[in-house]
Write the structure tokens for this entry.
Amino acid sequence: MNRSTVWHPFTQHALEPPMTRIVSTEGAYLIDTDGNRILDAISSWWVITHGHRHPAIMQAIRTATEAYDQIIFAEFSHEPAETLADRLVAIAPAGLKHVFYSDSGSTCVEVAIKVALGYFYNRGEPRDRVVVMEHGYHGDTIGTMSAGERGVFKAAYEPLLFGVDRLAFPEAGREQRTLDMFEAFCRSGRVAALVIEPLVLGAGGMKIYGARVLAVLKEIAARYDCLFIADEVMTGWGRTGTMFACEQAGLSPDILCTSKGLTGGALPLAATLCSEAIFEAHLSADRRKTFFHSSSYTANPIACAAAVANLEIWRGEAVGARISSLETLHRRNLARFQGDERFANIRQVGTIAALDLVAPAGGYLADVGPRMRKLFRERGLLIRPLGNVIYLMPPYCVTAGELGQAYDAIDEVASNVLAGA
Ligand code: PMP
């Protein structure tokens, strides 16, 4: 019996077994109380990039705790936040000049939406519409839920969610429809921003679309003075093969949201990067033009120090080479499923690989998801299918052998589930 008083996220406690207690983490593994090593094939909800407890990041955290705890971030600043902001601006797509800190993926997107509205409001031309893409996911606050796909998860909160204009997902061969929809929305003159996950919609089912669509969406946005908000919370930090996914479309967003891999996944931290024009629209002797957003833990110095250490790893270690070899390993492993009737939509972008189990009832709440998850766990793997969508997004330290085990497990589990086992 689960006697824990903890209420876990995205967990139906009436159906789930007691939580597995983890006592330590190491590289690509979670280690439980019985000493079992569980291969973290989804990087603990996509946050761990290099591997669990990268020594340089853990050392930076230890060092930072000698000097800092939390420091109020209005009136005061500190070296880790300043250094990190400078370094982020240096590696981000051109034109992003200012860094606003927050503490989760949801909040950095929430900040992005607020700052976009503030930009137009402060310029005396208020706009009130936000354009998003169907199947998008941007977080679980009221604002980011509004921007995301609706459905069973949001039914209870629907009355509080604000209306958005939704683009059709650009299915291969039907991209023009999405582009035309965007242009039609923009023509209203009321659109403040497009909020979009570049190249891959993560929680919506690892849906991949082309860089060209993204580039044209940016062109249209620029033509109508609509701000382009890239939600790189999942795609950032090498997941799609480049540091940020926007790079593959050769574009600079007006606002870029980053979290998850920002600290290599070790501590919660997020940043919203903005163009000079957006910062300047909030710069005034009139206090009413201030950007009114704060949270107690803004720019936690220990988390910022972890992020600076993460950037050092990117600079000093062969992260790019690890990412390319992971890309190759995925491609080779996925090849074995080509033409396999059990699977559809075999796909990959950078270090993310996904395939759909051809199961009778799809959708997120379909039983096949939890059934597969249980069978993966019995094989020592943490893999959480999104309905019938099986995906792997391991940390970059994963070895060829470990990845091979994950693919073997997919093969076996798919057969078992389809056979009703
Ligand atoms: N945006 C995207 C694209 C995400 O994938 C996520 C989290 N999966 C979020 C925002 C929200 O991040 P968090 O869970 O840290 O609030």
Notes: The first helix runs from residue 43 to 46. Residues 259 and 270 are 4 Å apart (CA to CA). Residues 104-106, 109, 137-139, 197, 202-203, 231, 233-234, 259 surround 4'-deoxy-4'-aminopyridoxal-5'-phosphate (CB under 6 Å).
